[in-house]
Specification:
Largest sheet: 7 strands, mixed
Oligomer: single chain
CATH class of the largest domain: Alpha Beta
Strand order of the largest sheet: 2-1-3-4-5-6-7
Order of helices and strands: EHEHHEHEHEEHEHHHHHH
Number of domains: 2
Strand content: 5-15%
Bound molecules: NADP nicotinamide-adenine-dinucleotide phosphate
CATH architecture of the largest domain: 3-Layer(aba) Sandwich
Distance between the termini: 37 Å
Shape: elongated
CATH superfamily of the largest domain: NAD(P)-binding Rossmann-like Domain
CATH topology of the largest domain: Rossmann fold
Length: about 270
């Protein structure tokens, strides 16, 4: 079977995570490019890749994965535009940049796919959503599933849902870590030393997520199982309810989604 050439542009946090996911995959050969020479050297050594210019990378790849910051995207798209043809599939992970916006840089019917990964991808535990542009066929979707399946779960959504995905799984790690930081402070106030407070809170979060996934139960069901009548959990939950945690979460996600909408280029 002929291997598919994948070129990754931007080898930062996400670029490396994707590179790590696919570089041993028997269906792909992978190459990368980063403007930072030291970073490119390090990645080339770590993943045994040739060091290619951006032009060479595009020439040699069937799939070009753009992993640069949204503000760098116009520059990269302008630079690669003349070399990208309909034989390529262009995948962008840049937050807020629509498939239609990217398609306009190219002449011809270039398949464009937009993926929103999240931080879990760094350890192969990500969750990503993708949507296909007007020229991206089901085959481009299958390719995306294989590529991003190496860093976690992946779901196709209509492009209009991408702002909500950005607010939930993109920003979500930040919300959860913020909650965890408050939980740790509370654990210290309750009398635990700093190291134990951090460890107990983090492991409680991981264990809870693991139980929910393993037992395939809804969070409400887990709450019911833990909170026995007149017990300690029930006493704590009453405070969260009175403080309006649910309403606060709705406002938090709404604010993130509204921001994603305002920042987006479609
Ligand atoms: N991190 C996340 O959790 C997350 C989640 C979802 C989506 N994303 C998206 O993923 C993308 C990358 O994020 P990141 O956190 O991986 O960023 P990052 O760590 O800053 O990595 C981007 C890399 O690309 C390099 N670069 C900039 N311009 C370039 C060019 N013209 N050609 C080649 N390389 C270039 C950057 O170099 P310089 O530092 O010199 O600019 C940097 O090394 C962003 O668009 C972001 O919206 C990230």
């Amino acid at each position: 079977m002929k291997r598919i050439g994948v070129g990754i542009v931007g080898l930062g946090n996400m670029g490396e995570a994707i590179l790590r996911g696919i570089y041993r995959h028997d269906r792909f050969t992978v190459a990368g490019h980063d403007v930072q020479a030291a970073r490119q050297r390090l990645m080339a050594r770590r993943y045994r890749m040739a060091r290619l210019s951006l032009a060479e990378l595009v020439e040699r790849s069937a799939v070009v994965v753009l992993c640069v910051k949204p503000q760098e995207m116009d520059g990269v798209l302008t630079e690669i535009a003349a070399r990208v043809q309909s034989r390529h599939t262009v995948i962008s992970i840049a937050a807020g940049i629509g498939t239609g916006y990217i398609e306009k840089f190219f002449s011809g019917n270039v398949p464009v796919v937009r993926v929103m990964p999240n931080m879990g991808a760094l350890i192969g535990e990500g969750i990503s959503a993708f949507c296909r542009g007007r020229y991206a066929t089901a085959q481009a979707g299958r390719l995306t599933r294989i590529l991003f399946g190496t860093v976690g779960a992946l779901f196709e959504v209509p492009e209009k849902q991408m702002d909500a995905v950005t607010a939930v799984s993109g920003s979500g790690p930040g919300f959860i870590a913020f909650f965890l930081a408050a939980f740790v402070k509370a654990a210290r106030r309750a009398g635990l030393p700093a190291d134990l407070a951090a460890l107990f809170c983090r492991q409680t979060l991981c264990g809870t997520a693991g139980v929910l996934a393993r037992l395939r139960i809804a969070p409400e069901e887990l709450v019911r199982r833990v909170a026995s009548k007149g017990g300690t959990t029930e006493a704590g939950l009453a405070v969260l309810q009175a403080a309006g945690l649910e309403r606060m979460m709705v406002k938090t996600v709404q604010a993130a989604a509204a921001r994603a909408r305002r920042l987006s280029k479609r």
